[in-house]
Amino acid sequence: MPDAPQSWPSCLCHGLISFLGFLLLLVTFPISGWFALKIVPTYERMIVFRLGRIRTPQGPGMVLLLPFIDSFQRVDLRTRAFNVPPCKLASKDGAVLSVGADVQFRIWDPVLSVMTVKDLNAATRMTAQNAMTKALLKRPLREIQMEKLKISDQLLLEINDVTRSWGLEVDRVELAVEAVLQPPQDSPTGPNLDSTLQQLALHFLGGSMNSVAGGAPSPGPADTVEMVSEVEPPAPQVGARPSPKQPLAEGLLTALQPFLSEALVNQVGACYQFNVVLPSGTQSAYFLDLTTGQGRVGHGVPDGIPDVVVEMAEADLRALLCRELRPLGAYMSGRLKVKGDLAVAMKLEAVLRALK
After folding, report:
1. pTM of this prediction?
2. Among 47, 70, 245, 320, which is most exposed with the fewest C-beta within 10 angstroms?
3. CA 333, 339, 342, 345 torsion: positive or negative?
C-alpha cells in the first residue's frame, strides 16, 4: 500500500525532525545504542513507522531506530497453525454434526499483514469458520464423511481468495468431523440404529400387535415417532392391557409367526434373542431365528449364539406397546439395551417391511 506523495513543506519538516533525531542518537551514544539498535532474526521482519509513515521491511540482522521518532512492529514469517473450534452444523440432508478444522498459514507480505488487518489471527479464524459453514451446508452427511479431503482442498482455495489481500497464505486445511449429533432425515445409506429401534417398537411391539393388546386402536399413524427422553412411564391404560392368561412377550412373538418366510430368512440371515425381565425379577428369554428354513420364533434361547440381544423389562415392553413410552427415550435412557453387531441389528428393518 503506497503512501500518498508529500508536499514540500511536509518533506522539509520530515527531513529536519529525522536529522535532529539522528543527531540526538549520536550525542547520547553509546547509551542510546542499547535502545536504538534492534536484532531481527532470520524468520522475522520489522515494520518501522517513522513519523507515522511506513518504511520498507527491515531485517534480518541489526536495525537502527531513531529515538522518539520511530515505532516498530515485528512480524513472524514462520508457518503457524490454529484450530477452528468444533461447532454444530446442519448438512443438506438434515443431519446435525459437530465439525472443526485445523488450519496452517504463513505471512508472505509483512507490510500488508500490518496495514490491512488489525487482528490477523482473529480475522483468519473467522474467515475459515464462515467458509467451512457455507461449504458443509450444501452437502449431505455421506458426502462430507467420504470426501473430507476434497472439501478441505476447496476450503483452502476459498480462504486464500480472501487472505491473500492481507499478505497471508493458507498452506493446509484439514476438516475434522467430531461427531454426528443427529442422523440425516432422509439418509441415502439406509436406516440407522436409532430409527430402526423406533420403528421396531412401533410395528413389532405396537401397531401390528393390537390383537394382543386387547384390540385397542393405536392413537395416530404407526410411523410417527416423537424423540423425547422419558425416565418413568405413565401408568398403562386399563383397556390396552394384554390378557393375563398369556405372557405379553409370548403373545407378541406368536403373532409374528405368520409373517416368517424363506424370503425373509434370505434377506436377514441373523438370529435375535429378546430378554424380558418380569416384575418378579426373573428373566424370560425369547428368540427370533432367521438363519435357516422359514425361520423360527419361540420361548427360550436359540440353538446357536445370537447375533443381537435385546434386553428390556416387561413393564417397559407394555409401555412401548401402549405408546406410553417412546422407543428412542427408552434406548437413550438404557431401559432398552441392544448388544451385538449394530449392522445386524439394523437388518430388523426387513422384519418391519414384512409386517407392513
Report:
1. 0.48
2. 245
3. negative
